[in-house]
Amino acid sequence: MEHIVIIGNGISGVTAARHIRKLSDKKITIISAETEYFFSRTALMYIYMGHMNFEHTQPYENWFWEKNRINLKKGFVETINTNTKTLHFADNDKLNYDKLIIATGSKPNKFGWPGQDLNGVMGMYHKQDLDNLEKFAPNNQMCKRAVIVGGGLIGIELAEMLNSRNIPVTFLVRESSFWNGVLPDGESEMINRHIKNHHIDLRLSSNLKEIKPDENGNVKSVIIEETGEEIICNVVGLTAGVSPNIDFIKNSNIETDKGVKVNRFLETNIPDIYAVGDCAEQHEPIGQRRPIEAVWYTGRMMGETVAQTICGNRIAYKPGHWFNSAKFFDIEYQTYGWVHGSKGKPDYEQHFHWKHNDDTKCITVAYHKDTNTFLGINTLGIRMRHETFDTWLTEKRDVDYVMDHLSEANFDPEFYKTFESEIYSAYKNQFQTA
Amino acid sequence: MSNELNHSMSLAKPEANNLSIKQKIAVLLGVIGLFILTLALLNTQFPNKGLFLSISLGLITVGTIIFAHDAYLTKLEGIKNDGVWFKSMSSRGILGWVTGIVLTGFYIVLYFYPQFLGQGQNGEANTGLISLFDPLSILLSGNPASQWFVYGTLYTVAILIFGYKFMLKYRHNRYQQLRTGSVMFFQLGFAFLIPEFMSRLNESPDYNLPYYDLKSMWPLNYYLFDGWSINGLLSSGNLGLMMLLFGIASIFVISPFLTYKYGKRWYCSWVCGCGGLAETAGDSFRHLSSKKLSAWKLERWLIHTVLVFSVVMTTAMIYTYLGKDPNKFWLTRSTFLLGVGILLTLVFVITMVFKRNELDKDARYGAIGYFVVIAALFIMHYTGTSDKIFLIKSSALRSAYGLYIGSIFSGVIGTGFYPILGNRVWCRFGCPMAAILGFQQRMFSKFRITTNGGQCISCGNCSTYCEMGIDVRAYAQKGENIVRSSCVGCGICAAVCPRGVLKLENGSMEGRINPNEILLGNDVDLMDLVNQK
Fold it and tell me: CB 3.0-4.6 Å disulfide test: which of A14, A299, B153, B488 passes with A277?
C-alpha cells in the first residue's frame, strides 16, 4: 500500500490527509513535533485569554484519527533523504515514504536584533510560544509591561491577549499607521484609534533597536531605534511577520528559496514530494497573490488540491477570488476581491470609503476607474456574505450595481441596524460633488 | 533560569478573582440580601416581613446591577469572555461546585421537604422563609405564600436581574437584547403575575382556575391534562374553556406554525421560562456543556425516551379521566385512543415517506423502535380486557413522571447542576417539549444557521459557547448550514465568531442542508467536481 507521509499537522497537512482518506485507502502518516493532535492555530490567543481551553481548539475528537486510519507520529524531522525516500528524526528514528507532503508552516521572523533570544522574548505562532507567554506573562505582577514589535495581524492579537490580563502593552509599529501596507488609510487610521481606546501604548513609525538583558539573561528593556527611548518591560513579542519553517530542508535536494519551491501542481523539483500551506513558494505568483501565502484559507485550499493530485487526479492549485478576514480587538474585518492600501495600489484602482460616526464601522470599495468594474471590498464592523461577493466578482459587476445591491450581501445578525441606504446615498453624493 | 523556577512561575494564575472595589461592594450588598433570606430560613422573626423582604430582594438586585455595570460598562462594546475558564465559578472550580451543591440542595428541599422552608402543614400558618414572602403573595393573589410562590418569585427575580446583566454584556448585539427582553417579559407577566391574578378570580364561586402559565405548553406543562386541571378549567366558565382550547391549539396549531416560520427558538430562547433562566442566570455556565459525539448520542436517546414517556403518561391520564363518567363527554375512551394512534401513525408515516433520507441511522432505528412499542401497547389494549392502560395504572405513571422527570430531572439536575454540566441540561437531555419542537425544526422549518462561504478558521469559539453542546464548528468548517433539532437559536455562536461566519436566518427550505467537501474560495472546477458527486 502506498505510504503518504505528511510533515506538519496544521490546517494544510490535515486537510490533505482528510481528503486523501476520502479519495483512497492509502496509508497516511502525519508527523508533528509541535502537538500530538491537530489544533486551530488561529485560536491559540483565546486560550491565553481564558475563552477556551486547549482541547477546544482541536477541531476533531481524539478518536477521529484512528477511526479514519490516519497515523499520528510525534517527532522532529531532521533530514530528508530523497534518494532512499527516508525521513530521519532527531531521536534517530527513521520513516520511509512513497509520497511526501511538506506542510511545516511558518516561524516568526527575527531580524538579528540584539537580545532577540533572551528569556521572555517570543513570537506568537507555535503552541510552545503560548506556553512561553503563559510562563513569562501570567499576570501583571509577573509582567509589568510587554512590548510588541511588528504591527500585523499577530501583533494586534498579542496586544489583545496581554490586554485581557491587564498587562500594559507598548506596541511598536514600523509603518506610519497600523497595517497600512494592506489596509487603505481610512481603515488603518480607525484601527489606530481603536487600539488606543483599548489603552494600548501605540507607537507608530517606531522600530526596535535592541533588547536589553538583566543579570539573569531575562528581558529588562527595549530601546527604540528612532528616539533612543528605553522602555522597561518583562516580555517582548516579536510579531514582524513570519517566514517558511524549512530549515531542515535546506540541506536536501529539494529546491528552496524563502519557501519550498513548487509549481502550480504543488510539486517540488523532486518527484513524489509536494509542499502546501505557508511553507510553499510558487515559482510565479498566481494573479495578484503573493508567491508565499501564509493564510489559513490558502493552506486549506492547497491541502484540498494536493489530495486530488496524490490520488491520481492531477490538478493545478487554482484558487478563486481572494478573500480574508481578521479581528482587531472588537472590530471584525472582512475582505473580498482586491482592495489595496495606498502603497501598493495600482493606478487604475479607485476607492469609495464610508465611515460610521461611531468610529467602529467602515467600508472601502475598490473599482476600476476607467471601466467602473467592481474590484473588491473591505469592511470593518459589518459582516458580508462571501458567496454574494464571490458571485459579483465572477460576474464582473460594475461598482454601481454592487453599491445598489449591497444589502443583499449583508451578513450581520438579525435586528442589527443596517447602513446600506446611508452608504448608498454617500456614494451617490460623492459623485455629484466630484 | 532553571526549569524548576520556570515551572513555579507558570503556576501563577492569571488574576481571575481580582474584583474591583465597586464589584466587592456589589458582592457584599448581594450577600447581605441573601443573608436576610437565610435568617428567615432559620426562623428569625422579622418585625415587618414586607419591609425585610423588600430590603433583601432590593439588595440582591442592586448588587447585581452595580456588579454588571462595573464589569461591562467600563469596557468597550464587544465579546466579554475574558477569563471565563480561569474563574472558579465558571470553570467547575470550588465556587462552581459549592454553588452546584447549594442549588441542588435547595431543589431537593423545595420539591420534597417544603416544611424545612417553612411551608405551613395542614392549613397552619407559614413560618421561616416562606412566611417572609406572605406579604407579597397576599398583595398579589390574596393568599399566603407557598413554596412555589417563593420559588416563582426568586426565579423571576433571577431572570430579571441576570437578564439585565446579560443585556449589558451584549449591548452591541440587538438580537441578544431583544431576545432577553422577551424572556424577561414572559417570565414576569405570563409565568408570575398573570397566574397570581387568575387566582384572584377564584375568589368568585364561578371560577375554579388551576395555576396556569399560558405560555407553558404541554408536554412541558405535563399537568395540563391532569383530572384536577381539566376539571378546574371546565368549571370556570368560558374563560376556563378558552384557556383549555388555547392550550390544545398551542400544541397542534400555534407552535408548529411558529416553529415552521422561525425555528424552535421562538419558544426556547424567546419565551420559555426554563430557557429564560438558562439564558440569564445560566449564561455564565453555557460553555460547560459537553460537545462530545457520545454526549450527542446520549442526548438523542434520553430526550426521546422522556418524550415517549410523557406521551404515554398523558394518554393514560386522559384515558382514565374519560373513563370516570363515560356519558359526560362526546369523546369516549376508544375514540380517544384511536385518535392518538392515528395521529402518531400519521406523523410516523409522513416522516418516513418524505424525510427518510435526511435521518441518520440512529434516529431511524429509534423512531421505528418507539413506534413498534407504542403500537404493541395499543394492540394489547384492544385485544385484552384489562382496565388499566398499558398494563400500568395511569396514576402510577403520572406520579412517576412527576417525580423523576418533573422534579428530579428538570429541577434538581436541570438547574442544580448548572455550574457542572452547563445551563441547558434539562433542555438538551430531558425536555419533551424541546424534543417535539426540535423534531419540527429538523423536519420542516425555514430556520437554519447559515455559514459564510469559506471564512471559518476552525477556532472553536462557536462550539465552546454552544449551550446545547452542538459542535457548531464541525458544520462551519465544512461550509454546511446548521440544521439541528436541538438548536435553540440563542445566537451566541454567531456573536462569538471572530470572523463573521454564522448567521441565524429564516429562509427557503430548498438547499437548507448543504454539506460541502471543498469550500468556497478554491478552484471553481474543483468545487464542482467534488461537491456534486
Answer: A299
Whether B434 and chain A come into contact, CB under 8 Å, resolves to no
| Span B178-237, pLDDT tens digits | 999 999 999 999 999 998 888 888 888 888 888 788 888 888 888 888 888 888 898 888
ipTM surpassing 0.90, yes or no? yes
Go through the domains of chain A in sequence order and give each one's CATH number: 3-107+243-310 (3.50.50.60), 121-240 (3.50.50.60), 323-433 (3.30.390.30)
In the listed set B138, B173, B201, which residue is the last one of a domain according to the structure?
B201
- Using an 8 Å CB-CB cutoff, list chain B residues near A140: 15
Q: Which pLDDT band, with edges at 50, 70 and 90, does B382 fall under?
A: low
| Among B14, B84, B504, beta carbon nearest to A51 | B84
User: Which residue type sits at A194?
Assistant: H
Q: Which domain holds residue B183?
A: 21-201
Q: Are strands A146-149 and A235-238 parallel, antiparallel or unpaired?
A: parallel
8 A C-beta contact, residue A284 and residue A291: yes
Contacts B491 to A, Cβ<8 Å: 413-414
Name, of B10-24, B31-45, B406-420, the range with top average pLDDT.
Answer: B31-45
Residues in B closer than 8 angstroms to A58, CB to CB, are 460
Query: Nearest 10 degrees: CA dihedral of B3, B9, B13, B15?
Result: -150
On whether residue B292 sits in a domain, the answer given is no
Amino acid at B271: V
Predicted pLDDT of residue A13: 98
Q: How many domains does chain B have?
A: 2
Within-domain flag for B265: no
Residue B372 CA to residue B378 CA, distance in Å, equals 10
Q: Which H or E run contains A88?
A: strand A86-89
Distance from B519 to chain A by nearest Cα, in Å?
A: 8
